[in-house]
Amino acid sequence: MEKRIGTVTLLITDRMRSKEINEILSEYGDVILCRQGLPFHDRPVAVISLIVEGSVNQINSLCGKLGRLEGVQAKAVVVSINKGE
User: Fold this and answer.
1) Nearest to residue 80, comparing CAs of 18, 5, 9?
2) Contacts of 12 (CB under 8 A, 6+ apart)
3) Does the residue 11 lie in any domain?
4) pTM of the model
5) Which of 12, 55, 66, 81 makes an SS bond possible with 74, Cβ 3.0 to 4.6 Å?
């Protein structure tokens, strides 16, 4: 299974989803290398950015589960890792 590296960006408009979001992120903890959050206290949105490494299926599954939550938008960008080049 070829690993990919990339980012997943979450735009959250319903902060009541934080428990569900954190449960999904914990489930995919082996794929997530880094997590950064920006709450935007003065706006009705929060942003979480993730650096991920895993198979396309793992990354798409993570992004899909998050994106199916009401009030959460999730987008992924992934690239191939060519070792030795």
Assistant:
1) 5
2) 18, 21, 45, 46, 47, 48, 71, 72, 73
3) yes
4) 0.89
5) 66
Distance CA 7, CA 10 (A): 10
Question: What is residue 84's predicted lDDT score, i.e. its pLDDT?
Answer: 52
Q: Which two tokens stand for residue 60?
A: 């798409």
Looking at residue 79, its amino acid is V
**For the domain that residue 17 is a member of, what is the CATH number?**
3.30.70.1150
Residue linked to tokens 């997943």: 8
Counting the structural domains of the chain, the total is 1
Evaluate if residue 82 carries a pLDDT over 80.
no
Q: Is 8 part of a structural domain of the chain?
A: yes
Burial class (CB in 10 A: 0-12, 13-18, 19+), 47: middle
Output DSSP code: residue 42. Answer: T
Q: DSSP code of 13? A: S
Residue 85 lies in a domain: no
Residue 48 lies in a domain: yes
